[in-house]
# Entry
Amino acid sequence: MAWEHLAGAHGADRGMSDQENESFRTARWVMLPLCAVLVAVGLTVRAARRQPRSAVSAATGSGSGAARGHQSSSPGSDS
# Structure
């Protein structure tokens, strides 16, 4: 009995109006691409974090010692 009163008092006994339906349609068209972009960015960041450091530095070219100013010594040289 109380549920019937609450449903009638808050409009739950009738369907959504045309304006409410249009608002939900608009929200779906906005939220779907937004969520898709967020998921794609999240997966890209996750994939980048899972790569080993050597693969990331080799791909960017900033992992070798010569690039940082260090010289590698050969086995017969006096340095």
Observations:
- The mean pLDDT is 74.
- The CA atoms of residues 70 and 76 lie 18 Å apart.
- The chain is about 60% helix and 0% strand.
